[in-house]
Write a structure and sequence with these properties.
Layout (H helix, E strand, L loop, with lengths): L12 H7 L8 H14 L1 H14 L1 H7 L4 E15 L7 E19 L1 H68 L5 H36 L8 E2 L13 H11 L1 H22 L4 E13 L11 E13 L7 H68 L4 H35 L6 H7 L2 E2 L11
Antiparallel strand pairs: 1-2, 2-4, 3-6, 4-5
Length: about 450
């Protein structure tokens, strides 16, 4: 962004660094390596790179039609023949003929060609915007896949910790039953929940493998060990804290909007080109050539010739009748222009919608994180209290199980909420057309090579 959005460009880079409560091991290189692998190996992004390379050739190709062209032609032949003249015997003759011509053509007035050059420049602008869109999309896809794998890994740890806790509670319930202070129902209930937790742990491992496969499909290699979010990291909030500012920049600077705007320019030039086909064209043509013949077959006396000629002319071409083709092309161009305008409006609305949704997701995500952190702190105390009460006989087994289940559910929700909030920040910058690889470094400063949350899944 520009103006008030200058602060927005630093809302990850500045606020993030000051928000860390625990110094993190820098993983900017780790995330940069993942992103670098994706830039090299992701076929979708490679396709966008080649599309930009191809589009850059449209401008010199169109400009070449405004420059003079020179064409050379040459031919050679040998003729054989029998000729009979009055009162002369039949004559067999053979002679060679060589011809060559060099023609220079310089366009003087070709309005369609001039408009084609302007259209090519607009096409390059569109390709640049589409490449920027592909680059932002790659950053989002890499980050989303990265976060999905980290969250999936955390869910595996949480599911395994929950299973261990249920197995411990199952042993406690069995001891209490053997001691005559608990019913068999407590044992069955705990065993049933442990079986469900085991199934959930297996499902979590499957989800982790799927997340790894999704990241591998982007980077083209098995993903390395990924860093996780620090417990002490405070998630940044959008700056400026005004959704309307982000929306206004999104409808102007979003790459998809810029590409759609360029498409309107292309459609305008194409419509003008269609009209220009009714105009005459004027070319300057210069030719220089030679014609050599070693003999002839029609004259009694065999003689050769060698002629060289030069010619300069002005050629004017005026379309008179084309069977309605020009009119049809004009109608087609008008329809394409209307389509481009509709696509532009759709791109603006989508950019505005994404900006609003991402902004709201950041705010709601921050609130969810705070609420879940409070719920987890209270849940740990609830688990401890219910376990103590169960040991004293003032709490029943289901109270302990319900408290543990609620705690582990909150742990999983907290992991997802934190990463989703970070991702929403990247989406907001992408909607405003500001997302760049530098933002990955800002996100990296919130991560640690170590697993700071590893012990937090234990109640």
């Amino acid at each position: 962004m520009r103006g008030g959005s200058g602060r927005a460009g630093a809302w990850f880079a500045g606020a993030v660094l000051a928000a860390l409560a625990v110094p993190a091991v820098s993983v900017a290189e780790t995330l940069s390596d993942v992103y670098a692998l994706a830039r090299t190996n992701d076929p979708t992004f490679q396709s966008a790179q080649f599309a930009l390379q191809a589009a850059r050739q449209l401008r010199p190709e169109a400009f070449s039609a405004l420059l003079p062209s020179v064409v050379g032609t040459a031919s050679g032949s040998r003729a054989y023949g029998r000729t009979t003249y009055t009162d002369t015997p039949e004559v067999n003759r053979a002679f060679d003929t060589d011809q060559w011509t060099i023609q220079l053509t310089q366009p003087i007035f070709r309005m369609e060609t001039v408009l084609a050059y302007d259209e090519a420049k607009a096409s390059v602008e569109q390709a640049i915007a589409q490449y920027a869109l592909a680059e932002q999309d790659l950053i989002l896809r890499v980050t989303r896949a990265y976060f999905d794998e980290v969250v999936a890994e955390r869910h595996v740890e949480t599911a395994q910790a929950q299973l261990r806790a249920l197995n411990e509670q199952l042993q406690t319930a069995r001891h209490s039953f053997d001691a005559g202070v608990a019913s068999i129902t407590d044992v069955d209930d705990t065993q049933s929940r442990a079986a469900v937790a085991e199934a959930q742990a297996v499902a979590a491992e499957n989800d982790r493998e799927s997340a790894r496969a999704a990241l591998e499909a982007i980077i083209g290699a098995p993903p390395p060990g990924l860093a996780t979010l620090n417990d002490g990291a405070t998630l940044p909030r959008p700056v400026p804290a005004d959704a309307s500012i982000w929306v206004s920049h999104a409808v102007r600077d979003n790459p998809a909007v810029k590409a759609a705007s360029a498409a309107i320019s292309i459609a305008d030039y194409e419509l003008d080109r269609s009209h220009a086909q009714r105009l005459p064209t004027v070319d300057l043509i210069g030719t220089y050539g030679g014609n050599y013949s070693s003999g002839n077959i029609t004259e009694p006396t065999n003689f050769g010739s060698n002629v060289k000629d030069r010619q300069v002319s002005i050629q004017v071409s005026v379309p008179l009748l084309d069977g309605g083709a020009i009119q049809a092309r004009v109608g087609e161009a008008r329809a394409k222009k209307s389509k481009a305008q509709a696509d532009y409006t759709a791109a603006q609305r989508q950019a505005a919608l994404t900006a609003r949704q991402s902004y709201a997701a950041i705010l709601s995500g921050g609130s969810q994180v705070q609420a879940l952190q409070t719920a987890i702190a209270a849940g740990r105390n609830a688990v401890k209290g219910n376990k103590a009460g169960y040991g004293l006989g003032i709490r029943i087994n289901s109270d302990v199980l319900n408290a543990e289940q609620q705690l582990y559910s909150s742990l999983q929700d907290l992991d997802k909420a934190r990463y989703d909030t970070l991702f929403a920040g990247l989406q907001l910058k992408a909607a405003a057309g500001e997302l760049s690889p530098e933002d990955l470094k800002a996100v990296s400063s919130l991560l640690s090579v170590l697993r700071p949350n590893q012990g937090s899944v234990t109640p």
